[in-house]
Automatic annotation (TrEMBL):
Protein name in UniProt: Uncharacterized protein
Entry-linked PANTHER family: GLUTATHIONE S TRANSFERASE D10, ISOFORM A-RELATED, GLUTATHIONE S TRANSFERASE E13, ISOFORM A-RELATED
UniProt domain GST N-terminal: residue ranges: 2-83
Coiled-coil annotated spans: none
Natural source organism: Ignelater luminosus
Alphabetized CDD domains for the sequence: GST_C_Delta_Epsilon (cd03177), GST_N_Delta_Epsilon (cd03045)
């Protein structure tokens, strides 16, 4: 069996969440880096695999899955059975799923809208209404952390991997205010202490440099 292939882009938060999951599970992935600015994700071959042309996409020996949240659940259920990252307990799993949907439906889209404005040259600072959307997401996240150290359970789970990659990206655009969001800040520091956190840090630094480059040009 060949290593599972991951088509990805370092700066992309969803790609980084899959890297975190793979590292946490000890899975080696064959990373195929796409250059989105060169439209590597719009080739006929890629579109055949993933008509939504998003990264990341997983090819596990012919099993094709896209959407980072779906990929992460697949990796844990296939390679990390009974892992605390996605426990079988129905309630715990439901809370994790809710957080994953929050990332997918609320937080990441709010971040992506700002990134697209910058990439398309339609803005050179974060418009107030877009910043407000991200701040509102931070408010929800602060509440998720009301009585726990991690986003969904008492231990780190897949919810944290998706949310940390999005939040740290959002923080580059709309800094997480320490005085308003103290629990969120503490959670970020906690996640930065994970032994495999480098899987997010590397691409996050690339993202930060790109954004700084856009502003300075
Ligand atoms: N919900 C998706 C979002 C993926 C996504 O939008 N990725 C962006 C890069 S961060 C992308 O592929 N953009 C290129 C495109 O949509 O054509 C996931 O979690 O995988």
């Amino acid at each position: 069996m060949a290593l599972p292939k991951l088509y990805m882009f370092d700066a992309s938060p969803p790609s980084r969440s899959v890297l975190l999951t793979a590292k946490a599970l000890g899975i080696t992935l064959d990373l195929i880096r796409l250059n989105l600015t060169k439209a590597d994700h719009l080739t006929p071959e890629y579109l055949k695999m993933n008509p939504q042309h998003t990264v990341p996409t997983l090819d596990d020996n012919g099993i094709i899955i896209w959407d980072s949240h779906a990929i992460n659940i697949y990796l844990v259920t296939k390679y990390g059975k009974d892992s605390f990252l996605y426990p079988e307990d129905p309630y715990k799993r439901a809370v994790i799923n809710q957080r994953l949907h929050f990332d997918s439906g609320i937080l990441f889209p709010a971040v992506l809208k700002v990134i697209m404005l910058f990439v398309r040259g339609q803005a050179n600072s974060v418009p107030a209404e877009k910043a407000a959307e991200i701040q509102e997401a931070y408010e929800f996240l602060e509440k998720f952390l009301e009585d726990r150290q991690w986003m969904a359970c008492d231990n780190v789970t897949l919810a944290d991997f998706s949310l940390i990659s999005s939040v740290t990206t959002a923080d580059v655009l709309v800094p997480v205010d320490q005085s308003r969001f103290s629990k969120l800040n503490t959670w970020i520091k906690r996640a930065e202490g994970l032994p495999y956190y480098e899987a997010n840090k590397h691409g996050l630094n690339i993202f930060r440099k790109r954004i700084e480059g856009l502003f300075s040009s």
